[in-house]
Amino acid sequence: MEDITTDAFVLRTVAYGESDRVVIMLSDQYGKLAGMAKGARRSKRRFAGGALEPFQRLRVRFGRRAHSSMVFLHDARVEQSYNVVGNVDLAGFAWASYLSELTDLMTPERDPCPELFDLYEQAVAAVARGEEAARVGHHFMLVLLDQGGWKPDFSMCGICAEGIVEASRPVLDPRGSGVVCSRHEAERLGLGPDDPSFKPSRRVIETRLLDYVGHASRGVPDSSVTTDPELVATATAMLDRLVELHLPRQPRSRALRDSLMG
Ligand SMILES: [Zn+2]
User: Fold this and answer.
1) Is residue 14 part of a domain?
2) How many CB atoms within 10 Å of residue 219?
3) What is the average per-residue pLDDT within 247-251?
4) How many domains does the chain have?
């Protein structure tokens, strides 16, 4: 068995048997890993200081066999703890949990992604500092999509490739490419694009929302991009929809986050 040491964040853990735990981690050098932590629910020494709790940068040591998808965690110690649970409001915690679940759902195992690891740490640190979690989350979600090969394009129509302007009345592309002109949807419904009875089944994305998500794909949008809480909330709904198109199931942590958004 090969012995490896790396840094990692715990994304989730599952109790296993009498005293073991299966730990799903995002590591900096090996991507997402599933690790068996034997006796983790008894041993306070090998996993000291709550080392299998989320939102902490850990130094983990594990053994790996060539053909097993599961690694064997020897020990873990906390290198840097981000106080997402104690320092911030429940909404910040709920957002951080949601981003962790999305990372788990959208990241394949053993596919090294050091940039994602760094970004995850930055996102957790920002939420722990009390930054507005939704904005941090929007940037993170767009990078996750990009990492998965699903980078949305908000600048042009996913069908006719024309540049999106206000008159395109863009709607979200149900195939996940980004946006499409609403006239394709009118055609699908057998209507002319200017038919007054045309009601897009998806919400028309206004220019300032496109602008906002464009910013969010490059970095966390600050107050110079918008100070409008309603716009930020609409961006959450839109990006939720977008990631959902690529998920095997609805994220469980979304309900808590939504119940706190009021
Ligand atoms: Zn088009």
Assistant:
1) yes
2) 12
3) 90
4) 2
Residue 3, number of CB atoms within 10 A of its CB:
10
Expressed as residue numbers, the domain containing 30 is 1-81
Average pLDDT over residues 42-53: 83
pTM, 2 dp: 0.92
Mean pLDDT across 75-85: 91
Cα-to-centroid distance, 147 and ligand 1 (Å) = 26
In the structure, ligand 1 is a single-atom ion and the residues with CB under 5 Å from it are 157, 159-160, 181
Residue 184 Cα to ligand 1 middle (Å): 6
User: Could you tell me the CATH number of the domain that includes residue 48?
Assistant: 2.40.50.140
262 pLDDT exceeds 60?
Answer: no
- Residue 196: inside a domain: yes
Residue 87 lies in a domain: no
Please report whether residue 180 resides in a domain: yes
Q: What is the pLDDT of residue 196?
A: 81
H or E element that contains 43: none
For tokens 């939504």, the residue is 258
